[in-house]
Specification:
The chain has four domains: about 5-105, Rossmann fold; about 130-200, ATP-grasp fold, A domain (Dna Ligase, domain 1), CATH 3.30.1490.20; about 215-445, ATP-grasp fold, B domain (D-amino Acid Aminotransferase, Chain A, domain 1), CATH 3.30.470; about 495-580, OB fold (Dihydrolipoamide Acetyltransferase, E2P) (Beta Barrel), CATH 2.40.50. It is α+β, with helices and mostly antiparallel strands and about 575 residues long. A hairpin with a 2-residue loop joins β10 and β11. α4 (about 90-95) packs antiparallel against α5, α5 packs across α6 (about 115-125) and α12 packs antiparallel against α13 (about 420-425). Helices cover about 25% and strands about 30% of the residues.
Length: about 575
C-alpha cells in the first residue's frame, strides 16, 4: 500500500477519500483554493497545500500547481476523486512523470472513454448497442439540422468530454439548434476545459441504468451489479439507488455482461461505471458512456455489496488486485442516495451559493451522510452546489423509501435553500414508489407546484411583522410555535427575487428580471423594444458550472437591458425590465 496519497479534489469526495486512506494507514495530503482555506477536507487530511485563487482554472484544474505539490509533499499516489481532473489523461500522465501513481485507469483508457465518440466505437467493437449519433464532433448548424431531419427530433447535443449533464442540451426543432450548439459548447468549456460536442438521437422516456465495474492489472474484470439514476432534472441526477428496481432478470444479466465486455475490450483497470439507457419497453438497452472514475453515487453500491470502492481503488492501483471473484459479489437489501444541493426546487432548481449557518445530519440505523461541510461552511459559486449525500439502506426498497423520508425530515440545513423539499416529495411519489419513473419524469410528468419558491413567509395583510420560532409547554406537552410581533416594514428578500427571476409570479406583477444568484451574464435573447410573452427567455446566466435561462415574468415590451455579457452580477441585480401589457 502507498505511504501517502494526495487528494486532488475538494468537498465531500475529498473527505470520503481521506477517510478511506486513513483507515488503511495512509498519510493524506489535501490541496485547496483560497475559497477553501477552512474547508472540512483540509482539516480531514494530515497536511494541506494552497493551490491558488478560487477560480478552478487557477487551483483545482491547474495541473502544474498540483504536480508541484506532489513533488513538495513527497506523495506516492494521487486520487483524483470525481470532476475536475478525474478524467483528464494529461493529468494522469503528469502524475506518473512526477513519480507518483495515479489512482485510476491508464491515460489511454481515459482518452478512449473520455471522448464519447471513441467510447461508442469501443462499445460497438464489444458488440454492445449504442444510441444512433454522429461519428465526429460538430459545431456546424447545417450538419446538426441534417442529423435532426434524418433521425427525427428531439436531438441531444452532448459534450464529448465530461458528464453530469453539463454540456448537454435537448433540441426539439431545427430553430433551436444554433443556440443549443453554442450553449452546450460554452458550458462544456467552463466545466471540462473542452468544448467539442456531438449529436445523438434523444430517447424521450428512458431509464438511466449503470453498472459498476472493477478491473485489475492482470486483466480480471468484475461487476458490482447495477444502479438506477433515472430521477433527474436538467440531465443531472437527483436520486440514485441500488439495485435498479423493476428490471427483467434477463435484461439485468445482459447489462452486467455488456459492461464487462466493454471493460475487457479496452483492458480497463480500477473503478469505472458503464452507463446505459433502458428504452421504455424495458427490453432494449443502449450503451451511453463509461465514466473512468469513482461516481458520485458509489455509496449505494457499497451499502448493498459491502465492498469499499475507495479501498478497492487504492489496492488495485498498488498492484494488490481486486481480492475477490465475481462469485463473491452478493447484493443484499436496497440503498437509495439523495443528492442534497443548494438549489431552490420551487424556482426551477436554481443554484444558490451562500453560507450554511447550521448543518445537522440525521442519525439512526442504515443512514449514511457524506458531506464536505460543517455549520458555518460556504457553498462557493465557483464550484458545484452539493451540500451532502444522504444515503439509506434497508432490507427492501419499500422500507428504504420510508427510511429516506424519515432521514430527510431529520436533516437540518439552514442558510441556503436546498433540494430537500423535492426529495421528500419524491420519496413518497406514487411513480417513484412503483419504479415507473424515467429520466424525463420530474420535468415533464410530475406536478411540482407544491414546491413553493424559498421566499419568506408573507406578513398578515395590512401590517408587517417580525417572526420568531419558540418552544412552549402546555399541560406538560411540548409545542413549537411561531410568534408574530409588530416589526419593521416588510422588504423584498433575496429569495423572493430568486422567484421573480425564475419567472415565478411573486404577486407584485413586476416585470423586472432579477439575478437569482451570483453569476456571469452569458448573453441576452432580447433587446430593448422587443415584445415578449410570459415565459419567453430573456437572459442566460452562468453560475456554479451551469447555464440558467431567466424568463420573462410577464408579457409586455422590454424597456431595459441592464448588463453586458461577461459581467459578474450579485443576487437581486436587475438584468432586464419588461413593461407589462
Amino acid at each position: 500500500m502507498f505511504e501517502s496519497v494526495l487528494i486532488a479534489n475538494r468537498g465531500e469526495i475529498a473527505v470520503r477519500v481521506a477517510r478511506a486512506c486513513r483507515e488503511l494507514g495512509v498519510r493524506t495530503i489535501a490541496v485547496y483554493s483560497e475559497a477553501d482555506r477552512d474547508a472540512l477536507h483540509v482539516r480531514a487530511c494530515d497536511e494541506a497545500y494552497l493551490l491558488g485563487p478560487a477560480d478552478p482554472a487557477s487551483s483545482y484544474l491547474a495541473i502544474d500547481r498540483i504536480v508541484d505539490v506532489i513533488t513538495r509533499s513527497g506523495a506516492t499516489a494521487v486520487h483524483p476523486g470525481y470532476g475536475f481532473l478525474a478524467e483528464n489523461a494529461a493529468f494522469a500522465r503528469a502524475v506518473a512523470e512526477a513519480g507518483a501513481t495515479f489512482v485510476g485507469p491508464s491515460p489511454e483508457a481515459i482518452e478512449r472513454m473520455g471522448d464519447k465518440l471513441s467510447a461508442r466505437a469501443v462499445a460497438r467493437a464489444a458488440d454492445v448497442p449504442v444510441v444512433p449519433g454522429t461519428t465526429e464532433p460538430t459545431a456546424d448548424v447545417d450538419v446538426a439540422v441534417a442529423f435532426g431531419e434524418e433521425h427525427g427530433y428531439p436531438v441531444a447535443v452532448k459534450a464529448m468530454f465530461g458528464g453530469g449533464g453539463r454540456g448537454m442540451k435537448v433540441v426539439r426543432d431545427a430553430a433551436e439548434m444554433e443556440a443549443a450548439l453554442a450553449s452546450a459548447a460554452r458550458e462544456a468549456g467552463v466545466a471540462f476545459g473542452r468544448s467539442e460536442c456531438y449529436l445523438e438521437r434523444y430517447l424521450e422516456r428512458p431509464r438511466h441504468v449503470e453498472v459498476q465495474v472493477l478491473g485489475d492489472l492482470d486483466g480480471t474484470v468484475v461487476h458490482l451489479a447495477d444502479r438506477d439514476c433515472s430521477l433527474q432534472r436538467r440531465h443531472q441526477k437527483l436520486i440514485e439507488e441500488a439495485p435498479a428496481p423493476a428490471i427483467d432478470p434477463e435484461v439485468r444479466a445482459g447489462l452486467h455482461a455488456a459492461a464487462v465486455r466493454v471493460s475487457k475490450e479496452m483492458r480497463y483497470t480500477n473503478a469505472g461505471t458503464c452507463e446505459f439507457l433502458l428504452d421504455e419497453d424495458g427490453q432494449r438497452f443502449y450503451f451511453l458512456e463509461m465514466n473512468t472514475r469513482l461516481q458520485v453515487e458509489h455509496p449505494v453500491t457499497e451499502l448493498v455489496t459491502g465492498i469499499d470502492l475507495v479501498h478497492a481503488q487504492l489496492r488495485i492501483a498498488a498492484g494488490e488486485g481486486i481480492g475477490f471473484t465475481q462469485d463473491d459479489v452478493e447484493v443484499r437489501g436496497h440503498a437509495i442516495e439523495a443528492r442534497i444541493n443548494a438549489e431552490d426546487p420551487g424556482a426551477g432548481f436554481l443554484p444558490v451559493p451562500g453560507g450554511v449557518s447550521r448543518l445537522e445530519p440525521p442519525l439512526g440505523p442504515g443512514v449514511r451522510f457524506d458531506t464536505g461541510l460543517t455549520s458555518g461552511g460556504e457553498i462557493a459559486r465557483e464550484y458545484d452546489s452539493m451540500v451532502a449525500k444522504l444515503v439509506v439502506w434497508a432490507e427492501d426498497r419499500t422500507t428504504a423509501c420510508r427510511r429516506l423520508d424519515l432521514a430527510l425530515g431529520e436533516l437540518v440545513v439552514e442558510g441556503v435553500p436546498t433540494t430537500v423539499p423535492f426529495h421528500r416529495l419524491a420519496a413518497s411519489h406514487p411513480m417513484f414508489l412503483a419504479a415507473t419513473h424515467a429520466t424525463s419524469s420530474v420535468e415533464r410528468e410530475w406536478d411540482l407546484t407544491a414546491l413553493a419558491p424559498a421566499a419568506a413567509t408573507p406578513p398578515s395583510p395590512g401590517r408587517s411583522h417580525d417572526e420568531e420560532e419558540v418552544t412552549v409547554e402546555v399541560d406538560g406537552r411540548r409545542f413549537t410555535v411561531r410568534v408574530l410581533t409588530p416589526g419593521r416594514p416588510a422588504r423584498p428578500t433575496r429569495r423572493a427575487g430568486r422567484a421573480a427571476a425564475a419567472g415565478v409570479d411573486t404577486g407584485a406583477g413586476s416585470g423586472e428580471v432579477l439575478a437569482p444568484m451570483q453569476g456571469t451574464v452569458i448573453g441576452y435573447a432580447v433587446a430593448e423594444g422587443d415584445r415578449v410573452e410570459a415565459g419567453d427567455p430573456v437572459v442566460t446566466l452562468e453560475a456554479m458550472k451551469m447555464e440558467n435561462t431567466l424568463r420573462a415574468p410577464v408579457a409586455g415590451t422590454v424597456t431595459a437591458v441592464s448588463a453586458t455579457p461577461g459581467t459578474v452580477v450579485q443576487p437581486g441585480t436587475s438584468l432586464a425590465v419588461v413593461d407589462p401589457d
